[in-house]
Design goal:
By secondary structure, this protein is mostly beta strands. 0% of the residues lie in helices and 52% in strands. It contains no helices and eleven strands. The strands form two sheets. Strands 2, 4, 5, 6, 9, 10 and 11 form a seven-stranded mixed beta sheet that branches. Strands 1-3-8-7 form a four-stranded antiparallel beta sheet, with no helix packed on it. A hairpin with a 3-residue loop joins strand 9 and strand 10. The chain is globular, with a radius of gyration of 13 Å. The chain starts with a strand and ends with a strand.
Length: 112
């Protein structure tokens, strides 16, 4: 039984940086990937970045390429999202997910 808890959200000015963390408990090795999603007010949830747990390949949505970096620790207990050059349109609730089926509760990011 995997549980995910996000942290690290907050308010930041445009151009600034934040680092989101996702603590994973349980057997995350059963999932072939971990990912970050976000949901802006009035919009649908959208995928941001994916990292494969079997090798570490990463994939990014075009609108975050070059600005965001997804990573995980070797023990697969933590998932991270380094967000640089933040824009106002990056505002939203950010979620981590295991295999697109287990979700955290989300953490708010506000860019002004």
């Amino acid at each position: 039984h995997v549980q995910l808890v996000e942290s690290g959200g907050g308010s930041v000015q445009a151009g600034g940086s934040l680092r989101l963390s996702c603590a994973a408990s349980g057997y995350t090795y059963s999932f072939n990937c971990m990912s970050w999603f976000r949901q802006a007010p009035g919009k649908e949830r959208e995928g941001i970045a994916v990292i494969r747990t079997d090798g570490g390949s990463t994939y990014y949505a075009d609108f975050v390429k070059g600005r965001f970096t997804i990573s995980q620790d070797n023990a697969k207990n933590w998932l991270y999202l380094q967000m640089d050059s933040l824009r106002t349109e990056d505002t939203g609730v950010y979620y981590c997910a295991a295999g697109f089926s287990v979700w955290g509760q989300g953490t708010q990011v506000t860019v002004s």
